[in-house]
Amino acid sequence: MDSSKRPAPPANWRARNLVSIDDFSDSEIAYVLALADYYAPFVKNGARPDQRLAGKTQINLFYESSTRTNLSFELAGKKLGADVINVPVAASSVNKGESVLDTAQTLAAMGAAVMILRHNEPRIHEMLAEHIPCPIINAGDGAREHPTQALLDAAAIRSALGKIEGLVIVICGDIRHSRVAGSDARLFRRLGAEVRFVGPKALAPDDAALAGFPHFDSLKEGLSGADIVMALRMQFERMGEAGKAAAQGYFESFGLTHKTLKFAQPNAFVMHPGPMNRGVEIDGALADDPARSLILRQVFYGVPTRMACLDALLTGGK
Ligand code: ASP
Predict the structure, then answer these.
(1) SS3 50
(2) To the nearest whole percent, how much of the chain has pLDDT over 90?
(3) Span 116-129, average pLDDT
């Protein structure tokens, strides 16, 4: 694949929003991943791509904290020439009780061309997508979906291993409360990988949509033959008492270290969507090992992948 040329868009770009990873068809996913590869050297070298979003207003509306997602969406929009506004939620009329819909309608009336929303209320993204006249991109909703994280993880894996098809990808830890797990697992499977979950039973998925993925409660068994092992953060903020009890002693049974990574393929890589709890789900020495860790590569791919999503959704690639 020659990533120095802008890829051709699918014949008819259809997706209007990116609320779920399933909003993109296979050809739309292939196009967005190719476009992320095309934009990656611009990000790496600080070069200026075509200002395809010049004159468009991008609103980042984050009701939950974020470092990587918020900043990389901001950078992505700016690199493509958009006017990017970060809504200071804590200092806005939200704290006077304004509803999300009223806030979003207000921002839309100011001419928003796209809204990037992080909010933990179930189905709020779908509701806004019905009422707001511009595309909505889901930047994380509770424990359900984080579609741009899945796309950037796929882009990072492809850049390291050249493919996803045929890989064994293991997602470890707090699957139940993670929005990354669901979006990643479904995307990796669509791209042809074998996907497994590993972790304590109390943190296994309870979402019916994930019932088809095998779950192992032994790290040794689950990691056998793995090419990629992704650790997830313990989502303490979303856990009940059973989850918190399962998180006790987690590192001893499931923590990823140079030693436990030996259960996987000899050249297996570790990943983590961040923020990491060092010494809880992953050992710091492994996370920092450039020969074994793709974690900073994931962060890097956040920018070109989000450029690709914004470009594709706002221009349909035309
Ligand atoms: N940053 C990711 C998210 O927002 C992962 C995490 O918070 O654990 O879902």
Answers:
(1) coil
(2) 86
(3) 94
